[in-house]
Amino acid sequence: MTNQITANIHETKEMTINMGPQHPSTHGVLRLEVVLNGEVVTRVHPHIGYLHRCFEKYAEAMDDYSKVIPYTDRIDYVSAMNQEHGYVIAVEKLLQLEVPERVEYVRVILAELQRIASHLLGIGTFGLDLGAFTPFLYCFIEREKILTIFEKISGARLLYNYICVGGLMRDVPDSFKPETADFVKTFRPKIKELNDLLSYNQIFIDRTANIGVLPAEVALNYAASGPMLRGSGVSWDLRKNDPYSIYDRFEFDIPVGTGEVGTVGDCWDRYMVRVREMEQSLVIIEQALEQMPDEGNVMEAVPKRIRMKEGEIYVRTETPRGELGYYIISDKSSSPFRVKVRAPSFVNLSILPAISRGALLSDLVAIVGSIDIVLGEVDR
Amino acid sequence: MLEFLENIIPSSPVALVVFALFPMVIIIVYALFAIWLERKVAGFIQDRLGPMRTGGFHGWAQTIADMLKLIQKEDIIPKDASSFLFKLAPFMIFTASYAAFAVIPFSSGYIGSNINIGVFYLLAITSFLTISIIMASWASNNKWSLVGGMRTAAQMVSYEVPTIVTVLSVLIVAGSMNLMTITEMQTGNDIMGFLPNWFIFQNPFLIVAFAIFAISMLAESHRVPFDLPESESELVAGYQTEYSGMRWGMFMLAEYADMLLLSLLGATLFFGGWNSPFGTFMSGPIWGFGWFMLKGMLLVFVMMWIRWTLPRYRVDQLMHICWSILIPLSFVNFVLVALWEMIF
Amino acid sequence: MQKQLKEGYQTFKSIFIGMAITLRHLFQPSVTIQYPDVRVELPPGVRSKLYVNIDDCIGCLLCARACPVNCIDIETVKATSDVDLGKTSTGNPKRLWVTQFDIDMSKCMYCDLCVYPCPTNCIYMVPEYEYSEFDRKNLIFEFSNLSPEKVTEVKDKLEKENEEKNRQKELAQQKKDQEKKDQETDTDTDAGKAGE
What we know:
Chain B is an all-alpha fold. Chain B is built from 13 helices and 2 strands, in the order H-H-H-H-E-E-H-H-H-H-H-H-H-H-H.
């Protein structure tokens, strides 16, 4: 009886709290409806759609396949090159177009550079979510160098519209090769510095190890991809498992989560997979720079007008965030009949309610950060 | 100093007011300087420059400009907030910080109130900070503020224990609660012939005590890695979420004043207060003030340096550190300090 | 206990390693520049503002068609036969007055797609990035160098010429019809004569 009374006195109510869309660490305009018991999260419900820009409808309205490319940039504005690459490969496969050797190499180098840039942003903002401001800016210093390389070749820093159907919009300048090689050389010590400053910092480990554990089975059931899946210890990378472009020519490893400081599939593993992937991207870039032919017309295979036959295709590529799929149906007209995007961030975000149950409010921030979503891609 | 003021100012109440306003001048000048310094330290650590424009040399007038901006801003009070408490909280938090400066011996010639229970008074008055933060968070009628306020309450109450125990270990060595007396006891350079008589050199266990004090100091003034009350990436801005304009400025001022207060307390208890590190060389009331502020500012700089290096702890880890590491450690250390004092 | 001690040691060690790194950066020169005083030199071909060399424009509308967001608005008037608009610097003959060539930079998505199809290379991006405006209307850049009077003049002229042409056409038609009629009547009369 007495117990009953004290229980009533100390009974606490659950509190619904609205996190976002203007919260500093929801990476854009994600809105999370969080039900809290004290500081413990009992339910999370993500609300999306604040950045919906009708990409798929726009793509249907364009009267040319190449006019869609600038819109693909804007799906995931953090890794625009990878988005373009996926779309262009899909259109080229529909057209059965052969692309010159040099173009393929440039595309791969750009895609890998973009992967590094995107991961740098993901890692930096993850640190920022946990209160470490300085590593974020160190990451940005490096990212800036990549963007400068991109600016020199394409003229834009963020949304490039550089890869076009059958080739590239312009040839890369002579300075591209030495500058990229130089970046690769200077970037390796920076990864070590980042590891010292953030990855192996005990406070950081305490905050991320054993948090938001995503078992491999759950990850597969939710169709997670990219670092999210690899962090759970599943070695699945489309560059290796289903090579597109010329990825079968390079030697590289697929880093997976090992549970080095906690459990396999925790936030730290997902974070560390990204850091190690940057190293592997450097390996790929080095090989590609070595094999890349110096001469060759990049506009050689660009069709004057894209004349499409009826058909449909699904092409999947590995973007920094995971498996990006373009499903294109073409009819005889000059505009695509349907362009469907399978956005990795969208799928990865759907896991959030499952892995954040029982976590603290601070952990929820860490989990959202470790998924590394880009809201442009979630909402499209 | 009071006699001096009474000599030059004919009316003695006016002299008292001038005397009492001295720490206020220090706090405001220091806050303007420290916020600028914080930005510069952050900038240089992050390979940036920080403020560069306002005022000419390295943007020294940036904080003054910001203060002017804050004063001009619209005073927004949320509709459903408890208006009276909402307005009261910022003043109360600043009053608490300011009042605590009364017992800090700024130099051999200036101490606001030379009372025998100086340390006790200081620890008691800083508890007002907790109350005013809870007041602010509760009155805001905002869930984020509430969570922040509850965290603050837990954090500050918990970390008061190790702070007090480490202060107690100094008091064992000093045998007095009067901060002026404590400082005077550290005058001279006798340890190993050249080291100053500071408490940190007098007793090896006081080094451990200082380490514990430094950690709890970070938590008490809620700086990274213990800045959970504000933790901008989780709680938006914690208890400050609904505040804007000069009311928010008061919180900012109090936060920096709190930093200085704890740093100065640390300097008094462990690093000889206003004593010069070179014995009688460069000592005296004016030099003493300089040394004291220098010591305090060095500790403030270290706090900034830590802030721009580390991520932040989670609330349960914060409690874990306090209750299962710092408190037992500080008690054990307290006994060891006492034993050392008995034996030597 | 041992594990806790080890963890405590790790914590302090990693904190001091981190602080050493930030201290090193504290004394490194900054990577940022003081923007309005110092400016980065933009690489060639940077995409920041569209520019049209209107003297070379032949009014072919290819750029307007290539634009994914329809931010280019072109209106052309055919030149009357009495004026010779000359040739562009690339040698293409100009046959149209470009009476309106507006680019709405607030709509532009800087994709560069309008630059490639231009046969005379008269539309291109220039490295000018400081053109913020308080009013959105000011972001519509008008490149046509014809004054409104000139525009009405050429339009009127074209209208007149068209009218003239139409009239001539009509006249020719009438003439034709007349001739036809005449012929018909001729044949009629001939036939009538023959029938008589």
